[in-house]
Design goal:
The protein is globular and about 45 Å long. It is 32% helix and 23% strand. The protein has one domain: Peptide Deformylase (Alpha-Beta Complex). The chain has 183 residues and is α+β, with helices and mostly antiparallel strands. The structure holds nickel (II) ion. The site of nickel (II) ion (NI) has 5 residues, from helix 2.
């Protein structure tokens, strides 16, 4: 089942999410639905608050292995780099954000309920930091300098009203792609 993705400004995106205590069948179904929702929107990451559920569940797929993380946390980080970032709750917006270059994160895998560690750099490290921020009620524009946030105020207002910064043509192309990928 595909969920509606919340836009910037909606309440669940501002809340700190609760840890998951039981890895039951509902969680496994939720993870599957979150992947479906993320792929249909051509995203590389999605956190449960983005579909209105304030629990600590994240899915990521930067093109290698799909990663589902329950109760994820960053246990080590190193370096800093500025790079472009987007978010499914901000359709069409891409902005530079400073993140750690390398991270080690631990999480519970919903498949076996075991605790794992993942070492990441580059896009995956960025995605892990971005998605864990969502679990703490932080969105990527919160990581930008105030001056930049003021500059893009109009764009942010459009998104808050439920709009997208992408042109209609791009939206149509995206729909075609997602149909193709869903097969
Ligand atoms: Ni996001």
């Amino acid at each position: 089942m595909k969920y509606r993705i919340l836009h910037y400004g909606e309440e669940p995106l501002k809340k700190v999410s609760e840890p998951v205590n039981d890895i039951d069948n509902d969680i496994k179904i939720l993870v599957k639905d979150m992947f479906e929702t993320m792929y249909a929107a051509n995203g590389v990451g999605l956190a449960a608050p983005q579909i209105g559920k304030n629990i600590r569940v994240v899915v990521i797929d930067c093109g290698d292995d799909p990663l589902a993380m329950i109760n994820p946390s960053i246990i080590k980080k190193k370096g800093k780099e500025k790079g472009p970032e987007g978010c499914l709750s901000f359709p069409g917006l891409s902005e530079n954000v400073i993140r750690a270059t390398n991270v080690v994160a631990e999480y519970i895998d919903p498949e076996d309920g075991e605790l794992y560690e993942v070492e990441a750099e580059g896009l995956l490290a960025r995605a892990i930091q971005h998605e864990i921020d969502h679990l703490n009620g932080i969105v990527f524009v919160d990581r930008m300098p105030e001056a930049r946030r003021s500059q893009i105020k109009n764009e942010l207002d459009i998104i808050k009203r439920g709009g997208s910064l992408r042109s209609e043509t791009e939206e149509e192309e995206e729909t075609d792609d997602s149909l193709f990928e869903a097969r």
